[in-house]
Amino acid sequence: MPISWRLTVFNTLAIGAILVLLGIGLFLILREALLSNVENTVKSRAALAARDLEVDGRSGGAPQVKLADETAEQLSLDGVFVVVRNPDGWVLYESVNIPAGALRQDAVWREVPTTGQPASGTADLSNEAPDYIYAMPVRHGVGPTLILEAGHSYSDLEEILGIIGTVLGAGIGVALLLSIGGAYFLARTALRPVDAVVSSAREMSETDLSQRLPVANPRDEIGRLATTINGLLARLETAFGRLEASLARQEEALARQRRFAADASHEFRTPLTAIGGHADMLDEWALEDPEAARQSVRTIKNEVERLGSLAEALLTLARGDEGPSLHVGRHDLGEVASEAVVAARAAANGKVSIEYAAPHRAVRAVFDRDRIRQAASILLDNATKYTPQGGNVAVRVGETAGRAFLEVSDTGGGIPEEMLPLVFERFYRLDSARTEGGVGLGLSIARQIAEAHGGTIEVHSKPGTGSTFTLILPPKPPTLTS
Length: 482
Prior knowledge:
Layout: H1 3-52, E1 53-56, E2 64-67, H2 69-77, E3 80-85, E4 91-94, H3 100-105, H4 111-115, E5 119-123, E6 131-138, E7 146-153, H5 155-203, H6 221-284, H7 290-321, E8 328-332, H8 333-348, E9 353-357, E10 364-368, H9 369-385, E11 392-400, E12 403-410, H10 442-452, E13 456-462, E14 466-473
Parallel strand pairs: 9-11
Antiparallel strand pairs: 1-2, 3-4, 3-7, 5-6, 6-7, 8-10, 11-12, 12-14, 13-14
Helix pairs in contact: 1-5, 6-7, 7-10, 8-9, 9-10
């Protein structure tokens, strides 16, 4: 059974029980009040009749009894009849004609001679029986005590009670019908937000968690439930978004790993092929030719050095991917730049001019000195390789917005805008013909070092005007504990 019907039935039963109890209670109260009114009227009129009763016993026989005309008229108006008996039960007076058989069957008065106290009860005396009878002793002069009975018919009372019962029953029935309709209406109104929530929930799919349940009244129970479910949906949407992003990153990482493995295999294959070829030459005939033998040995040594550099670069990248361990301290970035410039000038051997403008004061930051020196050397080596003979490389160190930076600019051919995002990719070389001995891992290592410090490397370049690489360090790297 739907909740709306269950609520309707429950409310109807509860209201019906309340109405029936109230109706019965009201009926009993009214009945008691009407009965009490009849009894009080009869008793008061009996006392009035006893006071105004005229008894004449001078004749020596049965006393003559009568009521004053005004009293008799008052009794008649109140619907009360009076019967006066002697102690033996003979009727001496009756205000209305009562059948003799009924008078003989009346047993209420019989208690009075025995107890000497008033008595009351129900009897069928009048033509509108049943009647309420009140009997009391009446003493007068020196004669015997008489018994006065006053009565009132219950027929009018029963008619009134019947009308009241009918009205109450009809009222309770109408109230029950109205309560059924009202309870169903209230239940449907109260559960209408639930229907809206159910409809919205059915429209949702497992691939679209952006929809939300309607909240008609956020302060009631259903509104709070819908709000709670919306919060859950928001958290699920966020979680699924993160999961999708994580899966995308994993796929991207797998793709990079595949590219990395392919590129690494290619880079290793080239020197190994050269080494194998010259080893075969030496084995077959080059040993007989001293000049050819020396040339093969030099080539093998160069390729071995190249393999060593490649292996060292790959090891550096692998350690960085695992989360490099930094030995940080507070150092002068200008001193690190100066050392890297001296080493780069020696390596360039006059091919390009390397200028360093020392800052007016020390530029101190918190970093791993060896790793930042390595990054600076990579940037200088990269600038030297891509700067033509006679070109210039400029190095500058400074601070901006509380962040230290090391800037390396060159006068090379520049980098096309569409290739700028690729220069930090592993094994990517802009012009392999002009980078003999390079493997395309330097800038990747430099960026990894910067990111390990919580910093970054920015590049700005235009074809024909050269490039500028800027290593930026934050005030405190994330791995530093205070």
